[in-house]
Specification:
2 copies of one chain form a homodimer. By secondary structure, chain A is of the alpha/beta class. Chain A contains 8 helices and 7 strands, in the order αβαβαβαββααβαβα. Chain A has a 7-stranded parallel β-sheet, with helices on both faces. In chain A, helix 1 (2-27) crosses helix 4 (96-103). In chain A, 49% of the residues are buried. Chain A binds chain B through residues 1, 3-4, 7-8, 38-40, 66-69, 71, 90, 92, 119-124, 140, 142-144, 146-147, 149-153, 165, 168, 171, and chain B through 1, 3-4, 7-8, 38-40, 66-69, 71, 90, 92, 119-124, 140, 142-144, 146-147, 149-153, 165, 168, 171.
Amino acid sequence: MTEIKILKNILAANEGQAALNRERFARHGLLALNLIASPGAGKTSLLERTIDGLAGRCRIAVIEGDITGDHDARRIAKTGAPVVQVNTEGGCHLNAAMIGEALREFALAELDIIIIENVGNLVCPAEFDLGEAFKIVVLSVPEGDDKPAKYPLIFSEAGAVVINKVDMLAATDFDLAKAERDIRKINPHVPIFQISCRSGQGLDAWLDWLVRQQKDHAAE
Amino acid sequence: MTEIKILKNILAANEGQAALNRERFARHGLLALNLIASPGAGKTSLLERTIDGLAGRCRIAVIEGDITGDHDARRIAKTGAPVVQVNTEGGCHLNAAMIGEALREFALAELDIIIIENVGNLVCPAEFDLGEAFKIVVLSVPEGDDKPAKYPLIFSEAGAVVINKVDMLAATDFDLAKAERDIRKINPHVPIFQISCRSGQGLDAWLDWLVRQQKDHAAE
């Protein structure tokens, strides 16, 4: 009896809290993104590059989700962007209540974009709405071009897909055309960005897209 | 009411079924391994190399766990090893009942080692016992040397850790000494194998270890 109550509360609270988060983002004209990927695909590197690349154009804050530790939050803090670390203490995904708590730590009126870096996991975060405008999926070249076909849910829910580490294409047998074809089978019109956070290749198109989304969002 | 029953049944069934699987493996002197890693770390490549490298020494069968599709099972079938694909249909990990079902498909008396490739996920599979002798964690170099500190549970439960894709060390800033230090903080005596499934580097030590484990297991 206790367990079913907890389970129901968790599910109901997530939907309700996600709607509350979404209202808060809308009230401040904030674009909120939920960044999802396997461990080590380069989510934090993409954040560092994005904050750096949009300096002076967009005010960005970050919520760092991890099972434990504050490694990524310390990396983001170095960029000067406001950042809050959320630890799930074993949990495999962030939920909307965790984000609601974290939002108290920011001056939302002074922000344009808030990016939530989810726990490194290509499966479970797909199921939990955080109130974001878009889920952004990062797929890295060393993971292999078979991942869209193998993890279809998250690719079907993506508002954009970033293929990161394209500087490693020559060192792998990753077939970019196949990966894009498989992504489009699941999500026909999703924007796909080919990026190397290491070399900076392809970042401009991603940053311009983000700025356009933020403007559209603020104008709504 | 329905949900709590389902939840309790799932948890109870997993413990009970894992014990049944373990008994079955023991009865046949079979070494069972539960292979866990992020998507794209190289679990299937390690299986291909292992089956090939132990040809004539050990009879190996494989259970391939994926959310959907039979991509990996088709790869393993090409090696000639017996293989069964288990699809979780959205689930983020294998459970012991799925393995119990899959075991019906094999002639267990004719095998020495059974390797279960779990769903690509560094979090949830850590919590579900499948009846295996060891969990084997594969960490790949492009994922970064921070992963043991960020996903401690799975590294603490590992019976061995394979660091794969060491041929990519020069192309990344992965610090092998740091990764090993962080693994040993969590799991002081765990064997760690540095491997490249691409070049074959380091495979012999891994294969020899496996054969020793299999012999110890069969002798029990």
